[in-house]
Amino acid sequence: RSSPDVFESRMEKRNEVKKQPVGYSSQGEFIRCMEEKARPIFFAEGLGTKTSKGGFTKDKTLDSILNVEMVKEKSAEEIKQIWIQYFSAKDTVYAVIPAEKFDLIWKRAQKCPSFLYALPRKEGYEFFVGQWSGTELHFTSLINIQTQGETAPSQLVLYHYPELQKEKGIVLMTAEMDSKFLVVHEAQCLANQVQLFYATDRSETYKLVETFNHRSSEFKYMSVIAELEQSGLGRELRPGLVSDKS
Q: Given 28, 124, 129, 243, which residue has the most CB atoms within 10 angstroms?
């Protein structure tokens, strides 16, 4: 009596069930429903986030993506698999970085907060500048900086989360990009170059980063391309040779 519309709706559903043929199973719908309900146990993406100018999330904390308290009961390998499985279904860049490697990247980033990266194009290369801001690494094309200066918008942001670094020995990373300028495999190439130049054991490679930051007049653009080609990253992104690796 109090809600006749609700009553009629329930009766319609009941009649539909009666009409279903013998042997009918709604197991598939049940599984999909359970998967949708189970996912937020670990992930809470979109909660407590604010979008800043350019469509990037302002103050994108790990808590806004992951249920940190719950995963603390998991091992590093289990957290890694949870992170990879979740983001592999999304059109973005992600990684789980060993603590020692991130330590090296972070120490060098404090001394050398910016660097020039080369992205292979159909003809030649397009240069991007990466600038660290805390544990966020912002990328924008060199042409943007040349034309807009300090107001040049970010086209890619890598978010690094060291909250589990001491306890689990891993640093989680994910990204946001402006899809008008970059696609995932291009953003992945730039992310791979961060490890190539900041986590390298080759003193000659890291010397390029130091030169760019502290002796810019001595810096040679072609040296970046040479390192990129030598590493194989440049060849992987050439048209017709795009890698499927995430």
A: 129
Give 85-111 pLDDT, tens digit per residue: 999 889 999 999 999 999 999 999 999
CA–CA dist 160, 140 (Å, integer)? 18
| Spatial CB neighbours of 190, under 8 Å, sequence gap ≥ 6 | 117, 119, 128, 130, 139, 156, 182
What residues have CB less than 8 Å from 136, skipping those under 6 apart? Answer: 157, 158, 159, 160
Contacts of 36 (CB under 8 A, 6+ apart): none
The candidate with the shortest Cα–Cα distance to 194, out of 120, 124, 137, 238, is: 137
Low-confidence ranges of the chain (pLDDT < 50): 17-18, 20-27, 29-41, 45-51, 237-246
pLDDT of residue 18: 47
